[in-house]
Amino acid sequence: MDLPKLWAQIRADLEQARITLLNDAANDKAISQYEEFLNHNELELACDMLESYAETHAVNKEFYKRKSQEKKFPGDWKEQRFLPGSPAHVM
């Protein structure tokens, strides 16, 4: 499995989910944290922040369609973060 390619696809899917949100979402704390986590390649935390935002705000079907794209990846991609060379790997 090409992990950098997998992470790039997950990142792209998260970004696609984000752009379905209204412009004023940028002012929300969860989205600010999403941006920060994404900038630090903390993909699971970025995903969690999108989910947190969706729990308290109305989002359209396209958000869930884009957000669900992560499920097409083999295995539990969130667990991949602990592998050496992963974006969020901490020594």
- Separate helix tally: 4
> Hey, roughly how much beta strand do the residues contain?
under 5%
What structural category characterises the helix and strand content?
mainly alpha
Radius of gyration: 13 Å
Instruction: Provide the helix percentage.
Output: 40-55%
Q: How would a crystallographer describe the biggest sheet? A: none
Q: Residue ranges: pLDDT <50 for 5 or more in a row?
A: 79-84, 86-91
| Distance separating the two termini | 22 Å
Give the tally of β-strands.
0
Can you tell me the number of structural domains? 1
H and E order? HHHH
Q: Could you say which overall geometry the principal axes of the C-alpha atoms support?
A: globular
Overall mean pLDDT: 78
Notes on the protein architecture:
The protein has 91 residues and is an all-alpha fold. It has one domain (3-68). The two termini are 22 Å apart. The chain is globular. It has helices at 3-19, 29-39, 43-56, 61-67. The chain is built from four helices and no strands. 21% of the residues are buried.
